[in-house]
C-alpha cells in the first residue's frame, strides 16, 4: 500500500489560510485562534494530512519526547507516577517514551536509544544511573531528573520527598506512643529512599535512647511477608513495625494477621507512600503520604526551565502522616 | 551549548571498519559480529557519537516506535501488561510511546500524535476506539491491535482471552459445587471482556435452570466493595460471587470480611485475571489465570507480520482456573 503524501500547502489551500498558519496549528504551544484551528483541523482531516513531527524535529531540534526509565514495575506507587506523568506531560504537549529497565543499573544501550530518539529530557525513577552515563547525557545537553531519589555524587536534578524529615516525624509519633520494641524493615539497601528513611527513623530514636531492630527487606510484599513471619515464629513480637514502603508494610501486616497478632493492639504497623490499596478497608494502613502530584509538578517545572540553568536543582517536598487502623 | 556533531565516517575511521558496518551496528536487527560490534561501540563512545534514529526513520520509514494507549492505569493487570510489552518489544528493537488516555474513547488528537511520530503500530488495551479512527489508521497503513478485548464491528486485529469459554468453565465449577444462589458483579458494561464473561457465565447456568443475580460494577475495587456491602446489609448472602476481574473480586472479598461472612464456607469468591496480589496470603483468591505472556507474544507476532497480511487477525487464548482459599 503506497501512502499518498499530503502537503501543508494543500491543507492551507482548502482551509483558505496561509501555510504558516497550518504550521502553527500543528506546533505545540503556538498561538492560533480556536476558529482558525478548527478550520485547519477539518481541512487536515478531509485530506488525511498529518504533519511529520520527526521531520519537524530535525529542523526545530524539538521532539517533544521525554524519556522515562522505570524499574519497579510491580510497585503500585510507580504506576500512579507513570499515569500522572503521562497526563501532565501531555497537557504541555510532551509524550513519554517509556523504558522498563530490568537491570539494577541503567545500561549504556538504554541511554543510547534515548539519545537516538532525541529525547528532550530523561526522567529516572527507581533505576540507578552511573556518573559516567550522567556525564554522557550532560555532554549531549539532555537534562536528567531523578524522581523519588537523589544522589549527591551525581550532577543532576532531583525531586524527592524529604525522607529524613518524614522518617523523623514517624519516629516522633512512635516515641510519643511509648514504644521501645521497634522494628524497621528496610527497602533495597542501596537506594537513597531507604537510606534516608532508615537514617531519619533510627537516629531520632537513638537520640531518645532507643535502638531500632533493623530487618532487611527489598521493597517487595513477598520479602516483607517472609521476614515478618520468621521473626514472629522466632518469638519476637515487636510493638511497632515501620516498613520502608507501603508494599513492605502490607506484607508485614498480612504475616501478622496470619500469626493472629492483634493489630494495632499487639503490633502497630506503619508504611510509606500511600498507594491506593493502603486505604482499602481490609488494610487501612497508617502511612506517610508522599505528595505525588506535587512531585510530578516540580519535575515538570525543572524540565521546562532546565535549559536556562547551569546548576542542577534539588527539590524536596514534605508530605504528611495519615493515621488509619494499623496504629493506635 | 553547541553540540559538535560526530559523523559515522569518523567512527568508521577510528574503529577501522567501513561506514556501512557502522551503520549496520546501529540498525536494529542487522547482522554484525560481536567483535566488530564491540569495536564500533567503543569508537562511538570515545567520539560521543550517536546515530539519529529520527533522521534515519525519514529514509527507512521505520521509526521502531510502537504506540500504546491505555486507560485503566489503576488496574494492576495493565501494569503487568505494560511491563511485559516494554520488555518484549525492546528485545525486538522497538520502543513504546505510551499514552494514558483519560477519556472513555480515544480522541482524534491522540491518534494525530501517534501519526505525527510515525508509530509503526498501535496497541490499544482498555480504551475504546471509534470505527472512524480505525479507518483513519487503516488509510495511513498503521496496524491496530486491540489487546484484551475485541470488537466485531472494527476492522482491526485483536488478542484476548477466550472469555466466553473461561466464564463457562467457571460456571461449570460453580454448578458442580451445587450452588444456586449466585451473584455476578459486572465490569464496565460496555467492554467486550465484561460482555463475554457475563454471557458465558449466565448462559451456562441458565442452561442448567439457574438464574444468576447480576449486580453492576465497573472494574474497580471501591465499587465492588460498596455494592457487596450493600446487598449483605439488605439481607442477601449469596453462596458464591464471581467478580468480572480480580480487583472486583477483592473488593467483594473485603466487604464480606467486614461483614464477618465466612469465606469460602458461607460465600465463595472467584475473580478473573490473576493479578499479583491475588496470590498474597491474605487474599489467596481463586481466579482465572489470563496467560498474559502468551497474549503479549501473540500481539507482537501480529505486529511483526501485519504488513504481509490484508485481513485482520483475531487471536483467542485460553488460560485456566486456579483454586486457592476463596473456594471450597
UniProtKB/TrEMBL annotation, chains A, B:
<feature type="domain" description="HTH lacI-type">
    <location>
        <begin position="6"/>
        <end position="60"/>
    </location>
</feature>
<dbReference type="GO" id="GO:0003677">
    <property type="term" value="F:DNA binding"/>
</dbReference>
<dbReference type="Pfam" id="PF00356">
    <property type="entry name" value="LacI"/>
</dbReference>
<dbReference type="Pfam" id="PF00532">
    <property type="entry name" value="Peripla_BP_1"/>
</dbReference>
<keyword id="KW-0678">Repressor</keyword>
<dbReference type="InterPro" id="IPR028082">
    <property type="entry name" value="Peripla_BP_I"/>
</dbReference>
<dbReference type="InterPro" id="IPR000843">
    <property type="entry name" value="HTH_LacI"/>
</dbReference>
<keyword id="KW-0805">Transcription regulation</keyword>
<keyword id="KW-0804">Transcription</keyword>
<keyword id="KW-0238">DNA-binding</keyword>
<dbReference type="InterPro" id="IPR001761">
    <property type="entry name" value="Peripla_BP/Lac1_sug-bd_dom"/>
</dbReference>
<dbReference type="InterPro" id="IPR010982">
    <property type="entry name" value="Lambda_DNA-bd_dom_sf"/>
</dbReference>
<protein>
    <submittedName>
        <fullName>DNA-binding LacI/PurR family transcriptional regulator</fullName>
    </submittedName>
</protein>
